[in-house]
Task: inverse folding
């Protein structure tokens, strides 16, 4: 079952793929908008936000990487799940997309049913994070609003989190002081594997450390436990408020 009322914005310069996916995803209950290039994508998303976006990497005016960077840097859309599509088998492209904040990656050619499964997984994850209404989790110098996904440092700076960043941080905050293995982290933060699990997890943790200014050698907030996984070395408290 799809999620009624959920909207998807697709950008792909291949008209056949646009029409195929628009028809297929509409039939299973999604409201789909399909555009051919980055310029049309920006205009469409600003005019009417979407619950999930899908980019082709190669576009006529700008690539999907720049669009991903733009979405993640835009406060209004920063938490929108992103799936990237590519005809390239180069793992470097996948690494770049994930480092920029994409939530999932799918190589062409692909099955529409597989894409649908990944869409549903990402939307379920996004929906799940809304359940802790009103909670603010405080740890070290940080406060995370569980509703808005807004992360604030004690100096007032707000840090933009992608959907994958938020899911990983939430996992650590739900299990403070506990050692989490890579399988646990991978299952919580990714829809399907697009490269070796160990590399996916290490990249995700590295990206989150950057967000949390945890750049000491060795990191002091999210510790690496050699041979076991990772551990959040902080106490967590629950507070009320808007995260500020």
Result:
């Amino acid at each position: 079952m799809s999620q009624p009322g959920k909207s998807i914005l697709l950008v792909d310069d291949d008209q056949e793929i646009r029409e195929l996916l628009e028809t297929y995803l509409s039939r299973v209950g999604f409201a789909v908008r399909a555009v051919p290039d980055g310029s049309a994508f920006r205009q469409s998303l600003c005019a009417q936000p979407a619950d999930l976006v899908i980019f082709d990497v190669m576009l006529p005016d700008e690539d999907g990487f720049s669009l991903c960077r733009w979405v993640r840097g835009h406060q209004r859309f920063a938490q929108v799940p992103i799936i990237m599509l590519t005809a390239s088998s180069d793992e470097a492209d996948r690494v770049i997309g994930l480092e920029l904040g994409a939530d999932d990656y799918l190589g062409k050619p692909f099955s529409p049913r597989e894409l649908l499964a990944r869409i549903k997984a990402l939307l379920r994850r996004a929906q799940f994070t809304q359940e802790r209404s009103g909670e603010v989790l405080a740890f070290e110098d940080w406060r995370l609003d569980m509703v808005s996904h807004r992360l604030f440092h004690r100096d007032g700076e707000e840090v933009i989190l992608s959907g994958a960043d938020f899911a990983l941080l939430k996992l650590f905050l739900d299990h403070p002081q506990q050692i989490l293995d890579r399988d646990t982290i991978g299952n919580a933060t990714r829809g399907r594997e697009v490269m070796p699990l160990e590399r996916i997890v290490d990249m995700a943790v590295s990206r989150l450390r950057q967000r949390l200014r945890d750049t000491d050698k060795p990191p002091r907030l999210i510790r690496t436990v050699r041979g076991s996984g990772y551990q959040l070395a902080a106490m967590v408290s629950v507070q009320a408020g808007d995260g500020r």
Observations:
- The chain has a mean pLDDT of 85.
- The helical segments are 15-27, 38-47, 64-73, 91-99, 112-128, 163-174, 182-189, 197-211.
